Amino acid sequence: MCTLEKRGNIFILTLAGEGEHRLNPTLLDSIQSSLRRVRQEATGSSALITTAHGKFFSNGFDLAWAQSSQERMILMDSLLRSVVNDLLTLPMPTIAAVTGHASAAGFTFALAHDYLLMRSDRGFLYMSELNINLVLPVWFHVLLEAKVATPAARRHIVMTAAKLKAEDALRLGVIDSAHSSAGETVEAALDLAARLIKRGWDGHVYAQNRTVFLRRVIEAVEDTSQTSTSRL
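Above: the chain's sequence. Below: its structure in token form.
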């Protein structure tokens, strides 16, 4: 489950508890419910921070729940697409404060934010599909192309299943900044959110510009004919 806190015009969505924050229907529905509340409660220039408790930001899809069922994998993919679409159309800047491991779909969830901050003392970003015999969904690739500039960096992430610590992620342009602890990562996210709010942008205009800027990503997220989460 997750919690939602509002500090002034900053919304803080936290994946709560000490578990792996696996993305199953229960957690994805909770995240989406929180995002809908953010959309409804936002007044004026606002910002969203997403973070997590414990060792994991998110360890990806809940494969134990899916139990090799293609129908359940498709359901989780559909629910994550819906959450990511909500993030990409949210009328405010969004910041992922990654304070633990973010793997596979969890990495994709973090990338769906406008800014990605990461702790440097612990945790990694990891597109693990190659190592667990899963085919990466097409829309994951399209999002990665939009967020990571160079083909060499994307090849390193996808085709070697590299576990990126903050230093490497910063060098490759995957994250915006690295911080020495979980607390400092969240504080940096709060500072960035405050600075963005001070710009006084109209949230709906911000969202419209994002949808133009990330048009190919949104089209891929909405194109369910490209669903692929099958095992090799």
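Residues 70-88 form the longest helix (19 residues).
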